[in-house]
Amino acid sequence: MSLRLRLTLLYTSLIGGTLFLFGSLVYALVSLILIDQIDSILSQQAEALVQVLRVNAEGDFDTRLLDSFQPTDSSLLFQVWGTDRELKYARPRFWRDPLDPLAAQMGRTMFNSAYSRGTHLRVISIPLLTRRGPSGLLQVGVSQSLLDTTQ
To answer: Per CATH, which fold does 29-150 belong to?
Structure first.
């Protein structure tokens, strides 16, 4: 093997490795930025929902206020679960399965990627607390189809 051939192979390997490294970094950075944007939207919408939620004297949620809530993203899904782990409110109404089944057991605010009804979702789960104690769980989710497409 001549010196020219060895140097050509070395140069090609170095360029290929460098391109692979930078491509991987760009891929990871774009994925992180998209997840951060999704999390930001979910946080804003969850905060708006928490401001709208009201609990009556019996400890039940007032769903009339939730019916009038207009999210900024039409693909937004949200659910309100009671402390008895019963679904109190869902939008869309047909979505009866938990957006993130594992989050109901955690007892703290958390972001998670989960599959529900065959759809890949990014979900924020927020425990709802009143002066009287825990009153339920709010789950707000959005489809990750854009992120899945870019990956």
So the answer is: Beta-Lactamase (3.30.450)
Please state, in angstroms and rounded to a whole number, the distance separating the CA atoms of residues 36 and 122.
11
HEC states along the chain?
CCHHHHHHHHHHHHHHHHHHHHHHHHHHHHHHHHHHHHHHHHHHHHHHHHHHCCECCCCCECHHHHHCCCCCCCCCEEEEEECCCCEEEEECCCCCCCCCCCHHHCCCCEEEEEEECCEEEEEEEEEEEECCEEEEEEEEEEECHHHHHHC
CB 120 within 8 A of CB 148: yes
pTM: 0.80
Q: What confidence tens digit (pLDDT) does each residue in 31-72 have?
A: 899 899 999 999 999 998 888 888 877 777 877 777 778 777
